[in-house]
Structure formats: C-alpha cells, structure tokens
Amino acid sequence: MWERLIGCGNWITKSVTKSADMDIAIYRQRRQRVIEQMGEGVMVVATAPEVPRNRDSHYPYRHDSYFYWLTGFNEPEAVVVLVGGKNPRHILFCREKNEEREIWDGFRFGPDAARETFAFDEAYSFDKLDEKLPGLLENQPLLAYLIGRDMAWDTQVMGWLNTVRSKARGGAHAPSKMIDARIWLDEMRLIKDGHELALMRRAAGISTAAHIAAMRTTRPGQHEYEIEAELLSSFRRGGAEAPAYNSIVASGANACVLHYVFNNKPLRDGDLLLIDAAAEYGSYAADITRTFPVNGRYSAAQRDVYELVLAAQASAINAVRPGNAWNDPHDAAVRELTQGMIDLKLLEGDVDGLIESEAYKRFYMHRTGHWLGMDVHDAGEYKLNGEWRSLVPGMTLTVEPGLYIRPADDVPKVFWNIGIRIEDDVVVTEEACEVLTNPPKTVAEVEEVMRHD
Ligand code: GLY
Ligand code: MN
Ligand code: MN
Fold first, then answer.
1. 212 and 312: one domain?
2. Residue with the nearest Cα to atom 4 of ligand 1?
3. What letter would DSSP give residue 171?
4. pTM score over 0.85
C-alpha cells in the first residue's frame, strides 16, 4: 500500500452490454446479504457519472465499483435502491430506451429489460429518481448511502430527506439515522467469493502475459512508451477491458520516482526498467511490478539489490497466512530489507535501532501491500479497534517491497539510481496463501526469458 494513493484507473470500459462472466444470481444474493445486515431501512447507491475530458469528449466510462458489485449493471445513470425489513425490495433506476441515442451510442437495456435481466423486483426510469425516492424513504428509520463520495449526490439525497420532512404535518417522517453504506459493503467486498477470484485469476493471467511480453521485447535504444505500448496491446489482446491503473514504465533514475507516469525516456544499456502495470478484467484489477535489466543482464550491484528485494518479498509472502495480522508481511519485509541494507553498507547501525528510528524509510518509503479487488487499492479497513486486523481466507492483497536509492555522498556510487520493486498479488487461503501472478522473478528466470540469440 503506497502512502499516497495515486489517481489510478481513469482508463475505463466503454461496454454497456452484459459481460460474458456475469452471473446474475450472485448479484442478487449479494444484495440479499446487504439487506439482511442492514435490517429496517433503505440503501441507495448510484453508479459513477460520465466524466467530460474536453469539449464533448468523455473519458472512457467506468461504473462505480460498489454499484457494480451489487448489480452487475454497467450503464451510466443508474441507481440501486435496497429496501430492508419484512418486505425487502430490490429496485433499479436506469436510463429509458431511446432509439436515437442507441443509434449514436449503442444499446441500453431500459427499465423493463433491466429488471428482468438483472433480477430486480422493480425498475424505473432514471428521470423518476427525484419523484420516487422521497416516497421510498418515507417512514423508514434509516438511510444508508456512500456519504461524501460526491457533493452533488449528497445534495440530491438531502433534497429527498427535506421533501419527506416537508410532509411532516401529514404524518410522514424522514429517516432519523443516516449511515455510511461502506460499513457493510467494504467488509463484504474485502472477502472475495469464487466468482470474484475467477475474474481476479484471469486479470492476473493477462497481466502476467503482458509482463513476459514486455521482457521479451525490451532492448536498449527503445523508449519507455514502446514498452508501455506492448503492455497495453497485450492487455487488450488478452481480453482485458483496460489497464487497472496508469502504467509506470520507469527506466534508470525514473524508477526512484514512485508514481512516474511520463514513460517517455529512451532505454539505456546498463539501466534497469521498473514496470508497474496490470490489467482490469471483468471489473477486477491485477497489480504487478517487475524490475529487469534493459540489456537482459543484471550488473553485480543491480543483482545485489534485486536479490535483497526478492528475499524481502519471499519473507513477506511467507507471512501472509490466516490468523496473521495485516502488518506482519510489512514487518517481515522491513526487517529483511533493513538487514540487507546494513550488509550493502547503505545503512549503518543495528537492525532493531534502524527499524525503531525508521532510518530504512530513506530507501523504502512505502508500505508492502494493499487490498486488491475491483479497485486497485480496494475497499476494506486495515485496522479494527485500533489493531491491525487478522488475515482470513478470501482476502486478496498485494506484496510489493522495493528499494529506491537516490544519489547522495554517503551512498556507495554503484547503487546510485537503482530503483527496484517486485509486486505480486496473493489470496489468503485456508492454509497460507496462493500467489496469483507469476511473471519471471528470479535473476535466472528473468535473464532466461530476456535472452535473444
Ligand atoms: N500500482 C499501484 C500500486 O502498486 O499500489
Ligand atoms: Mn500495488
Ligand atoms: Mn503496482
């Protein structure tokens, strides 16, 4: 998990038709579980808006992850309303059919077909939202929604509450409790079901193939963007909708810029290339980093640092097991890296003292992982009641230690501008964990796949 979250993921799918992997019963079951947890009340979750890019061009559309997790429906202008209590109702608001718009922009389900196809009890036109919602909220004790995600949406929701309140003299009352829907949705999204894991395996497989293609194609003299093109082409050829986040293709000193995205420099013989890139498939992200030599052979100094990061990753992965705390893999990686940095004369002192004083952060300044799912930095708390939470089967996370060595007088010159990260995706299993991503990783494996005779 990086300290600062980046603007990952403004590459988004255009498809508005039903995905081949969609299994509608699963989405209805998810909604039922949410309704059971909520009890009496109403939950309202909107999908993401279309976002203008410039003039009348839009960014490729990508639905909201919470909304899609509840519905499997990926048209813009849609809202799901779940009414809890003794008579639960699953209600969808979506765009009307519109022959002219469909000629220009493509298929829309319309409320009737959407209700049937996506297993809703009721469906209405999106235009009816303001008309219907006050009635649905009337005399309900609780309203759950994604508080604060979007100011315009907050204002719209408050408007419905005020409409209900305006009818107080007629005996209506508005929900007196308001709750963040994330309190239930995040916890459910955190534990992946079989359907989700199948999609994540596919995203991982496509992304693995793209990293192998990138290793095979890389030569001194090419540019970072040519390797990025190979990755993007590989994602699409593998059937992915889009990259899961903006690709980082960082050669030489650029690898020490954690969120480098320019990807425009020539690749120099003797430099390393750090690639942090992965695909989104079926709305699920992979997240992979590999760091390999532009010329196919690690130098001695590069190998020393690389093998240290690799050992730290192995220790961290070994700490991903049910019952261990979220932070155990990070602690394991920090210990391994700190000892290694002493051995390489990057740090001076004893391991415990350097960990205590956080001296290691000069070269390892981000965290070792984050939840992974529909969002690359996925939903879910990391601490419960002030303590790092325990890992349980079905949680998916990244394991991504690294070292980033900027030039400085007190740093051995052979290590200057070496930036290395190794990142894989893992799912916690009953016994330990399963690694979902597997591009070549050892020095021998990487050099073998890069060999071109
Ligand atoms: N690609 C974003 C991250 O590794 O967290
Ligand atoms: Mn990551
Ligand atoms: Mn990454």
1. yes
2. 287
3. T
4. yes
